[in-house]
Amino acid sequence: xxxxxxxxxxxxxxxxxxxxxxxxxxxxxxxxxxxxxxxxxxxxxxxxxxxxxxxxxxxxxxxxxxxxxxxxxxxxxxxxxxxxxxxxxxxxxxxxxxxxxxxxxxxxxxxxxxxxxxxxxxxxxxxxxxxxxxxxxxxxxxxxxxxxxxxxxxxxxxxxxxxxxxxxxxxxxxxxxxxxxxxxxxxxxxxxxxxxxxxxxxxxxxxxxxxxxxxxxxxxxxxxxxxxxxxxxxxxxxxxxxxxxxxxxxxxxxxxxxxxxxxxxxxxxxxxxxxxxxxxxxxxxxxxxxxxxxxxxxxxxxxxxxxxxxxxxxxxxxxxxxxxxxxxxxxxxxxxxxxxxxxxxxxxxxxxxxxxxxxxxxxxxxxxxxxxxxxxxxxxxxxxxxxxxxxxxxxxxxxxxxxxxxxxxxxxxxxxxxxxxxxxxxxxxxxxxxxxxxxx
Length: 440
Prior knowledge:
Layout: H1 19-22, E1 45-50, H2 54-71, E2 74-79, H3 84-93, E3 100-103, H4 106-115, H5 123-132, H6 135-140, E4 142-143, E5 146-147, E6 150-156, E7 159-162, H7 164-169, H8 179-191, E8 197-198, H9 204-219, H10 221-228, H11 237-249, H12 258-263, H13 267-275, E9 283-285, H14 290-297, E10 307-310, E11 321-329, H15 334-343, H16 346-355, H17 373-385, E12 390-391, H18 393-396, H19 399-402, H20 408-418, H21 423-439
Parallel strand pairs: 1-2, 1-3, 8-9, 11-12
Antiparallel strand pairs: 3-11, 4-5, 6-11, 7-9, 7-10
Helix pairs in contact: 2-16, 9-10, 9-11, 9-20, 11-21, 13-14, 20-21
């Protein structure tokens, strides 16, 4: 899920006026002519590991069933838990890794490649990537000039989801387009008696996504890239400025359940707190995969009961932030390579696209495959962003800092959510953890 850049769209244009343009993109309806594997693998048994659980896991299993139908291979799915790197590391060192894994952190892909834990992909997979993926996705899946990963699932993480009825009841007629507007909107909602925000503070990765959107827009792309590589410190004034901005919204009275309640909420719970039968808040921030939670766990309808607007501009431009899950081969065998080749095809992506809560960076996927206009536009925005898509900063970092539950950036931002008044302490703690992780 983390899992997860797009060209920003403003206001309600995300939903309206785009249907005609969408039909002009992508390949055939089922994406079945893009070179997907047709090799017979009858009798071959494969194991695939990924972070997905619940509805996401069930949808991915349907993709794997498509591979089984096509090749005859038997594929078993294993959930890794939140700490994918630790899970896979223990399996590799114990001599029993899965054949294929989905890595939600690009930094982990590079680490594993350098350790020789994952295998370079074949020329046929490279050809599919060159045909159907922007160069940035090829680069993100590579290390030292070799392709190791196929980004099967992308995430547009520059989205704010809201309940239109709450806006209407508060007299809000337009979604905010700037950070100042967003803060004002939150105040108006609070004054009307509504709690403005549901925040998934129990999942530290959602807080890193909040920070990255604010930082990308307020500090700009060059600073973003520098901070991602730890070329500037987390005590830099630009970092403190972004934290101060977050503090404007992370007020206990603006949060469903207050700070303590937010720190107990995971991502799905934060969504149902807005769109469930007894709503506790008006807005929730997170990526395109929120649509899957709305559809799978509430009675709300995306596009009517649940709407979305781009993450507002903090600086001159709105942020363009996202993530993705890369399929990598851990065991060198024909079945594993063929499965990753299949995941590089539009045919595989189309299966999940039709189910919702999914975005593919594969240009050959027909936008008509997505179940509604909102999800079609979210997917289109990822494709349109091309090489301007900016990858999730925490997923570029060493896992010890950017991807470990209960430590590093996840923990420090949870601490900040609980006490958003001490910016200097938060920045110093972030820097101490980053310095240690990047040194190692």
